[in-house]
Amino acid sequence: MEKRYAEDFKKGDIFDLGEYAFSEDEIIDFAKKYDPFPFHINKDAAEKTVFGGIISSGWLTALIWLGMMHKSFLSYDTIMGSPGHEEMTWPKPVRPDDKVTGQLEILDSRNSKSKPGLGFVRYEAKLFNQDNEIVFLTKSTLMIKSRI
After folding, report:
1. By the 8 A CB rule, do 97 and 22 touch?
2. Per-residue tens of pLDDT for the chain, all 148 residues
3. Exposed, middle or buried, 22 (CB in 10 Å: 0-12/13-18/19+)?
4. For the chain, where are the E strands, in sequence order?
5. CATH number at residue 131
6. What are the φ/ψ torsions at residue 80 (nearest 5 degrees)?
7. Does 1 map to a domain?
8. CB neighbours (10 Å) of residue 64?
9. Listing from the earlier edge strand, what are the strands of the sheet with 84-89?
10. How large is the C-alpha radius of gyration of the chain?
């Protein structure tokens, strides 16, 4: 992974996060343990809901996105965590066999005024399904080492 400091990120920069295919077993296994709504774990019950079938827990979708970030974007040499998310939405459900692609856009980057060596990089990340529909969106800030 390329080592990037806060100063290396510019507003409008876009990064590819790769792709991921969801399996039905993965969706059901995760939901049974963490989010056991019938529309996540039971085909018959799910078909009777507004979703019309099994869908991924939003939390599984978010964790898949996070894994994509770790594989393709985050440099452990410079990333120092996050103070939290300001927005996280799931505009469309993720279904078994959906293949998602991820993209991240830099919204802002600045160095801390009070803590030398620390920068804040604000971004918007999205996952798109195979029909190019947004299935996950988050806006957040990363704390990243700065060169200064």
Report:
1. yes
2. 789 999 999 999 999 999 999 999 999 999 999 999 999 999 999 999 999 999 999 999 999 999 999 999 999 999 999 999 999 999 999 999 999 999 999 999 999 999 999 999 999 999 999 999 999 999 999 999 998 7
3. buried
4. 14-21, 84-89, 99-111, 118-128, 134-145
5. 3.10.129.10
6. -125, 20
7. no
8. 21
9. 14-21, 99-111, 118-128, 134-145, 84-89
10. 17
Residue identified by tokens 């806060």 is 6
Residue 117 tokens, joined: 């060596």
- Amino acid at position 1, single letter: M
CA distance 127 to 20: 10
Residue type, 29: D
Domains identified in the chain, total number:
1
State the CB neighbour count (10 A cutoff) for residue 56. 28
